[in-house]
Amino acid sequence: MENSEGVKIESTVVTEEPLISALDIALFVVIITVAYFWYFKRDKQSSSSEKKPYTIQPSSLSSIEQTSNSSFIKKLKSTGRSLVVFYGSQTGTAEEFAGRIAKEGARYKMKGMVADPEECDVADLVEMKEIQKSLAIFCIATYGEGDPTDNAMDFYEWLQNGDADLEGLNYAVFGLGNKTYEHYNEIAIYIDQRLEELGATRVHEIGLGDDDANIEDDFVSWKEKLWESVCSHYGIEETGEESNIRQYKLVDCSEVLPERIFSGEISRLKSYENQRFPFDVKNPYLSKIAVNRELHKSGDRSCMHIEFDIDGSKMRYDTGDHVAVYPKNSSELVDKIGELLNADLDAVFSLLNTDEESSKKHPFPCPCTYRTALTYYLDITSNPRTHIMKELIEYASDPKDQEKLKLMASSTPEGKKEFHEWILRDNRSIVHILEDLPSVKPDLDHLCELLPRLQCRYYSISSSPKVYPKSIHITAVLVNYTTPTNRVNKGVATNLLAQLIPTNDELPQPTIPIYIRRSQFRLPPKSQTPIIMIGPGTGLAPFRGFIQERDYARKEGREIGEMVLYFGCRKKDEDFIYENELQEYVANGTLTKLHLAFSRDQPEKKYVTHLLEQNADELWNIIGEKSGHLYVCGDARSVAKDVHSIIVKVVMEKGQMTNSQALNYVKKMEQQKRYSADVWS
Hints:
It is built from 22 helices and 23 strands. The chain is an alpha/beta fold and 681 residues long. Strand 9 (285-294) and strand 10 form a beta hairpin. Helix 10 packs antiparallel against helix 11 (399-409), helix 11 packs across helix 12 (413-425) and helix 21 packs across helix 22 (659-671). Residues 83-227 form the Flavodoxin-like domain.
């Protein structure tokens, strides 16, 4: 019943209750259930964590495995090795040289291994003294404006910032550089000196390879003397045993499923079908060709303006950056190799490193077909080095061919002369060698092991992201030339690009893999700073981006400084590229002055260097009196050197300085980033 407030009142009749109510039972069940799940979940997690270090994922390693793999000392000790050869390589040459040294170590009872400093704990160098008769060799390239290669950057910084005690470390250094660049072999020289400062013992003097001359000859000559020094230092003798031992073994992959076979990807399988940001050297972006048009007005040469579509890629670039383009070899050359060696190019194979301790399991992405390897992964157009001549000897059935290869593989004066004339001067590739020495029939898998990797090509970006945020522009001359043997050699990248013409219909647009490489070639932070740009021919490319950026700032209402451009080409009516654009920038005031030199439009040749000498007052006014910036882009061997000499002369005369003072002034400009060069050799 209810009381007057409407509240229900329980009956006063008393009944007997059970000892455990339904509520108690429910609570008990809940507690048991929670305890059950808690206990078994914890046990499962514990079990999982115990097993985790033993689980290897295909795409990544656990932190424990990475730590183990980074210890090159442990690998040396566990495999009875005493020689480690580190490489700092941007294009693969230093890595190739390192492999050749490590391989030759066997002739001196020094079992060797090749190591990428980026994948090693270089601090372990202090423990090298624990290995009897140990030796560390460094094949180091200098890259860009005196910079370490990407994979040697951490090692370089470790040497700069650390003070490790390297007493007991025996070492030697070979540098790879180019004398046409100002910072010739700067990184190798620094490493050689710094190792000594930290207490290490130099077993052999540093070798300096010059890629502008004959870096192969430099390397071979240094390597011969290196082993003499090694024998003297350790009191050992050469065994005389040849070291033509295969680094990789052939694996038949005919049964591998098609979806597991590489078809040209740089690193990750199916990466072009499933693109993932960020994009870099190992993960390029497959860009559509949006524009491909001819810039030359007449003549038998070609210069292309190409625009790569990066809309939706999340890629960002700055004015002055470079774009890397991944080329592929022509099908004609690839088919020719298959024909010469009577090989099935569509057979699927893999090359597996015979050194189980090596972090590099394959020389290129495997498994793939021979056709894929020769098309996308291997360089079949450059001049082969002497070690390839040596490896080909065993495959020559004609004694004359065999003797020729032996001669070129030797380090005798006669051998070097023959190699220089027959390979370098006559510009023979591996295809030409197989054609001209018809009895040489190497196993195709061995040839694939020997040939260097096909490298990407870098181009100065000729656009500004302020104006073209969704595309990257380049300016490229089509490379075709006739060799002394009357063969026509074609530039791998430019001839491929020339074929990639976008269509106006609904057909799929042509694509090519690219990524952006950062540069130090930058406009001044302040738009008011005056600048001088010197860029004959395609050296104009980065300055087109500079001018676009300053024009954008002007249109936004910002004050811009003087912009003076020096441009040169052969003939005004033939190869004056971007003429209309440049004249428009002059008309609207963005480009203050445009100095033009057409070398063949008059009896006496006229170059931009002549104009620079004539305009000494203007040069000094901008770089001396107004603290402006000077930029040069072009061939390192001629343009960059000549411009540098003229600038020093102008500073001397107009700044009233001695030669020494002028050189120091220009050096200071470079250090302040007021004198920048974007050059090639």
